Amino acid sequence: MRFARFVVSVALVGLVVGCGATPGTTDSTAGESTGTSVGAGASSTTTSSIAAETTTTTPGFDTTVGSESVSLDDLPPECVEPIKTFVEDIEPVVSVFDYETGTLEDFEQMTIGLLPIVSALYGVLQATPCVGTTGPIQGDAYPALIAFAQQEAPGSVAWLEVQRDVQDYPYGEGCSEYIENLQTYVEQGGTVFDLTVAERFHAYNLFGSVMAWCPLQTGGEYSNRPEVLAFMVLDPA
Q1: What does the domain layout of the chain look like in residue ranges?
Q2: Per-residue pLDDT tens for 44-55?
């Protein structure tokens, strides 16, 4: 089955949680394909600083995230409750996704389920200091978000960990760059299931960006290449 709809990237976040950051600024490399995405979190039961260091080794990409520390007390008060609600609300949607065997179709269905939850969060936070203009969650906010999920919504933890790991992967700023970055994976050979979970999410999002933002002929021709179909484990249209 082929997907003409845009697989919305929820790894690329339209919300920047404060955590000491200036609203409207970001150190991300997110691309133009981000429509709606999701933010970071806090806990009323955890108050200590949490350190995190994540390093991935995706061939062809620099995806190292440095060691950062965040205290939940750094979050603006008006951010805390909506974010906690978000983490709890996504749990029924993301907990049923199989992170080892989930297909592009499964990923799309999960994303569709997340959209109203993401939109609700954005609607609440957009007039607060919690929201910047573009880019993913500040990297140092993920440990606090995951710590809260471990306590209150454990079914959300795996999804949040993937968002943390994939946040600095390159997307690009237009059709040619989406194709170039996806092609980096395709040229490795094998299939999308030979990738790590974070890399697979990245590849799914890149494929969705190609389908959404490339001209119809360009996107159709690229997505129907035999090597792309084989890599994405898709049947011909």
Answers
A1: 1-172, 175-232
A2: 232 222 223 333
